[in-house]
Design brief:
Strand content: 15-25%
CATH class of the largest domain: Alpha Beta
Number of strands: 12
Order of helices and strands: HEEEEHEHHHEHEHEHEHEHEHHEH
Distance between the termini: 24 Å
Strand order of the largest sheet: 6-7-8-9-10-11-12
Helix content: 25-40%
CATH architecture of the largest domain: Alpha-Beta Barrel
CATH superfamily of the largest domain: Enolase-like C-terminal domain
């Protein structure tokens, strides 16, 4: 029996659908807005998080985004369901009934918000948790601190985190304005991932393919995973000897996308919301397990329960990876004096899709 088969037939009831807007400033210099999805039924409560990046997509759900007390009802999701049946229904209805989304990827982000809430509700209705339902032991989750270096770039934020947690690894986003002094000032042995963001388009973090940057960073951090480089005639010679270090993130929304990569991957960064459905996510995880592909989790500045969902999945499928799923304290604009330590231990007595 596949992992999806283990949860697909779980029954649950939805009596009401509720939405709650959340907002917070981030360490990357923008206000993050997400929507928490609440499914309630038969005395149980399931939650998910829509991590669409565009504020307008969230605000369009509310009569008054400032108060977020009156929202789109999604009455068509009320009733008796199995997880598989609920997923089919989500594929049939318009999850952006008031317009949008601003970008195509948000279709999957919102669907995942509803699917993860349904998974949480179904597991709670069955009085179990995801680990027990799948028959997998959950382990403590190791994580890295993910940060950008500012404009102009400095090592100040890395230094502040390292002063508090000297044992912690880092995921960094190199940019063309990184100087030699900046690179030399970083902790070479603790940079676990360098994310070139070569597949982003129209975002505040876009980084154009830069073969000189690629070469400098790859040589400076010889043990780091190389995430999302852009493969161009100029960059391919730099990357040719490092395919075993390359990880893919932004291009991956399904197993079909994995099969379409230019070479079989050694690494994948798993962001559940990119897959949209529980079935698509679990299919890809099963394929990676069978192929021996290394995995680690990725975050999207979740503000609520979505972060706990990332921890739950990491604890089951890739607990020892360089997981970019650090607790929310690492994402606030000013580094706190105290920060959580890695690894994160699962809670005892948990229910649902929780950690």
């Amino acid at each position: 029996m596949s992992h999806y088969d283990a949860v697909a037939r779980l029954p649950f009831v939805v009596d009401s659908v509720g939405l709650k807007r959340r907002a917070r400033d981030t360490s990357s210099g923008f206000e993050r807005v997400t929507t928490t999805i609440h499914l309630r039924g038969d005395g149980c409560h399931g939650r998910g998080e829509d991590v669409s990046y565009d504020t307008a997509d969230h605000d369009a759900l509310y009569a008054d985004p400032a108060t977020s007390t009156e929202a789109v009802a999604f009455d068509e999701l009320e009733g008796e369901w199995t997880l598989a049946g609920f997923s089919t229904r989500l594929a049939e209805i318009d999850l952006f009934p008031t317009g949008g989304p601003e970008r195509p990827a948000s279709h999957n982000y919102r669907r995942w918000g509803f699917e993860s809430a349904a998974l949480d509700l179904a597991l709670r209705a069955a009085e179990t948790d995801l680990a027990a339902a799948l028959g997998i032991d959950s382990d403590s989750v190791r994580f890295v601190a993910s940060t950008r270096l500012g404009d102009p770039p400095t090592t100040d934020r890395v230094d502040a985190i390292a002063a508090c947690r000297p044992e912690l690894g880092f995921k960094l986003d190199p940019t063309s304005d990184w100087t030699g002094d900046v690179i030399d000032g970083l902790p070479t042995d603790r940079v676990r991932i360098v994310d070139f963001k070569g597949h982003y388009d129209g975002t505040v973090v876009d980084q154009e393919p830069d073969p000189e940057l690629y070469e400098r960073v790859i040589e400076a951090f010889p043990e780091a995973v190389i995430e999302d480089p852009a493969l161009t005639p100029e960059t391919e010679p730099v990357l040719a000897d490092h395919h075993d270090r390359i990880a893919w993130d932004a291009p991956i929304e399904s197993l079909t996308d994995v099969h379409g990569l230019p070479f079989e991957p050694a690494w994948l960064n798993i962001k559940p919301s990119r897959f949209g459905s529980v079935a698509s996510l679990l299919e890809t995880l099963a394929w990676a397990r069978d192929k021996g592909v290394s995995l680690y989790g990725g975050g999207q500045f979740e503000l609520g329960v979505g972060r706990r969902h990332l921890h739950a999945l990491a604890g089951l499928f890739y607990p020892a990876g360089p997981n970019d799923v650090a607790p929310a304290a690492f994402n606030v604009p000013t580094v706190p004096e105290r920060l959580p330590a890695s690894p994160l231990a699962p809670s005892s007595g948990r229910l649902g899709f929780d950690w």
